[in-house]
Amino acid sequence: xxxxxxxxxxxxxxxxxxxxxxxxxxxxxxxxxxxxxxxxxxxxxxxxxxxxxxxxxxxxxxxxxxxxxxxxxxxxxxxxx
Length: 81
Known about the structure:
By secondary structure, the protein is an alpha+beta fold. The chain has a single domain, classed as Alpha-Beta Plaits. Helices cover 27% and strands 15% of the residues. The protein is built from 3 helices and 4 strands. It has helices at 14-18, 49-53, 69-80; strands at residues 3-5, 24-26, 31-33, 59-61. The strands form 2 sheets. A two-stranded antiparallel ribbon has the order 1-4. The protein has a two-stranded antiparallel sheet with strand order 2-3. The longest helix has 12 residues, at 69-80. It is globular and about 30 Å long.
């Protein structure tokens, strides 16, 4: 399942720097996560790095983009060859 950033975002940019898939970018009012690139760090780390560094606890699962661990692993492999 991809992650999303909610309105608690303080626009600090910490999450963007930690994303191994370049899935996070600045939006109009908060950072945004591209669900096509988000693997919840599966394939790179044991847990989502963006959630670890977010000072506002603004990152949560995006239930509109549910994926299995196998799907996330395949996405990571596609993104990183």
